Amino acid sequence: MAATEQQHERALEKFLDERPELRHELDNLNPLLAQAKGETAAQYRDERLHEAFEAEAERQGLFAWELTLKLTVDTPEDYETQRMEVHKEVAEMAGLDWLEYCELYGLSK
Fold first, then answer.
1. Is the pTM of the predicted complex or chain greater than 0.70?
2. How far apart are CA 67 and CA 11, in angstroms?
3. pLDDT of residue 27
């Protein structure tokens, strides 16, 4: 089962809690930058937060949903179990054989 929106919001909050410098930066963005993009300050801040989150996931070699799971589950075992469940769902939706999917994404079966 994929991460829920509520789970993702908790992950974003934890992500910011662990990075006070990023929180400070996001809380002090230039409102003119948001205006220039035709966005509210909150929309502009959210966009920057999601970019930072996705960049961190990529830095760790993860998809953003995997980082969401990693930040919100109780144990590493829970993370691996849920992560593999989602990958299996994705493989099934894509119509890929599980072994082929694992090879494609470098997963252990």
1. yes
2. 8
3. 96
The region that residue 12 occupies, defined by phi over 0 for left and psi between -120 and 50 for alpha, beta otherwise, is alpha
The interaxial angle of helices 41-59 and 64-72, nearest 10 deg, is 90
**Selection from 44, 51, 40 nearest residue 12 by Cα:** 51
Q: DSSP for 15-39? A: HHHT-HHHHHHHHT--HHHHHHTT-
> Closest Cα partner for 86 from 49, 78, 51?
78
Are 60 and 67 in contact by the 8 Å Cβ rule? The answer is: yes
Q: What is the pLDDT of residues 61-109, one digit of tens each?
A: 999 999 999 999 999 999 999 999 999 999 999 999 999 999 998 898 6
